[in-house]
Design brief:
156 residues, mainly alpha, 68% helix, elongated
Length: 156
């Protein structure tokens, strides 16, 4: 990748994952406000709600950790500890995956299944693009962290 195009793919994946999340929220609104039909699944509603809540909290907590590490005019530093960062390099994206899965289960519909799949794919591709950027930026410390942590799940 040239330096002119190096940032295009990560921005594209980020836009796609945000778009998928926004569309999932729109499906929630369509269902609850306008009575959009859904497929009947034998999954407890509390499970879907727990996924949404856990995913949202995970994302917000780890955003706070990153924001705290990058406060002020300090140079960029590798956030490889705190929260789930000791085990997972992208816990905010893990939180997004849980959130998307929960929203998909709250309103089971072929469109929500497609949006969850698109969101998951974009999150994985975004995480890989960020890994490449962090490897170039932080070098050996990042590679050591990469060896002991998973992309979105511990050990994977």
């Amino acid at each position: 990748m040239t330096s002119d195009t190096a940032g295009v793919a990560p921005r594209l994946w980020w836009c796609i994952k945000v778009g998928a999340g926004a569309a999932l929220i729109a499906l929630q609104c369509a269902h609850y406000l306008m009575g959009m039909p859904q497929v009947t699944l034998d999954i407890p509603r509390w499970l879907a709600q727990a996924l949404v809540l856990t995913g949202g909290i995970t994302t917000l907590l780890h955003h706070r950790i990153v924001a705290g590490a990058c406060a002020g005019n300090q140079p960029a530093r590798l956030v490889d500890s705190g929260g789930l960062y000791g085990w997972v390099r992208h816990p905010m994206y893990l939180g997004d995956c849980l959130l998307y899965a929960g929203m998909g289960l709250l309103v089971p519909h072929p469109l929500s299944t497609l949006l969850v799949a698109i969101g998951f794919t974009a999150l994985v591709l975004q995480a890989r693009a960020e890994d490449a950027h962090m490897a170039a930026l932080f070098g050996e410390p990042f590679r050591c962290w990469q060896q002991r942590s998973g992309l979105l799940l511990p050990g994977l």
